[in-house]
Amino acid sequence: MFLLGFDIGGTKCAVMTADYENGQITLLDKKKIDTDRSLSPYEIINRLISLADEICHKKPEAVGISCGGPLDSKRGVILSPPNLPGWDNIPIVEIIKNHFGVPVHLQNDANACAVAEWKFGAGKGKNNVVFLTFGTGLGAGLILDGRLYSGTNDNAGEVGHIRLEKSGPVGYGKVGSFEGFCSGGGIAQLGFMMAVDAVKKGVSPAYYTEGMTPNEVTAKTIADAANAGDKTALEVYRTCGEHLGRGLSIIIDILNPEIIVIGSVFARAQNLLWDSARAVIEKEALPLSANVCRVVPAQLCEQIGDYAAIATALLEE
């Protein structure tokens, strides 16, 4: 099968093609653009369709769309994702289906990535898999008893909305949320706040210069400083890791998964996060559940968005 995928995110969007044969995906071509917030959703979608036309050497047999939620996968509509301002009730499946004339399937990015890691990555062969995005935002995709579980109206797995603290960085529109502490933007917020406090105490974090704006601090610059031994940066990631452990403990207790696969920031900064996360899990989670659950970085790594979009094309096949 020749397949086409669309990966729509808060920072970037991409289109990719792939062949699917004998249970394996072979990625063929890809083009990407920044998610330009000065453009309307329809303008971005039309740009992506034009890019797709450029890389499709023949008509695709199915199309998959992976996008941040919330959305309605049955109606094929994107419903105001927090990381995509202005994307309100966008009938993306209808638009793309009218252009290509083939089956088009839509899933939120966490669900799509969960299916990709379950079918082709770290969760292969497992029946109970939780995937955490841990990128621009934080969401979960759930494979329960060997099936994708999306809930009553596609809102299962919105773990980023769980409040872990009364105060702290903001994520998913909620102060002190799981996403606030465990997302790229959340780490940047936390790093900025801790840097300002450090400067007041006479400490100069390596990733921060007095007068910087919050937008000039990123999860990557903090990670680079932490890996170089900066104490404030290490404390930022330790704090993030502790809250990751707290959130994972809730997931382990409620869902009793075999494996939790975590993408993006965790895959790149496991060395900065895992020790503090594991210590919290050992204290907080039920031992019988924690002992049968492995926590691992995404195996598909930087290509997971590509696999996720293509895997979505296969969901109903």
How would you describe this protein?
This protein has a 5-stranded mixed beta sheet with strand order 3-2-1-4-8, with helices on both faces. It has 317 residues and is an alpha/beta fold. The protein has 10 helices and 15 strands. A hairpin with a 7-residue loop joins strand 9 and strand 10.
List the helices and strands and how they pair.
Blueprint: E1 2-8, E2 12-21, E3 24-34, H1 41-55, E4 62-67, E5 71-72, E6 77-79, E7 88-90, H2 92-100, E8 104-108, H3 109-120, E9 129-132, E10 140-144, E11 147-149, E12 170-171, E13 174-175, H4 178-181, H5 184-200, H6 219-227, H7 231-255, E14 259-262, H8 264-284, H9 287-290, E15 294-297, H10 304-314
Parallel strand pairs: 1-4, 4-8, 9-14, 14-15
Antiparallel strand pairs: 1-2, 2-3, 5-6, 6-7, 9-10, 10-11, 12-13
Helix pairs in contact: 3-10, 5-7, 6-7, 7-8
**Rounded mean pLDDT score:** 95
- Structural class, judged by helices and strands? alpha/beta
Biggest pleated sheet: 5 strands, mixed
Radius of gyration: 20 Å
Tags for this entry?
10 helices, alpha/beta, 317 residues
Gist of the model:
With 317 residues, the chain is α/β, with parallel strands linked by helices. The chain is built from 10 helices and 15 strands.
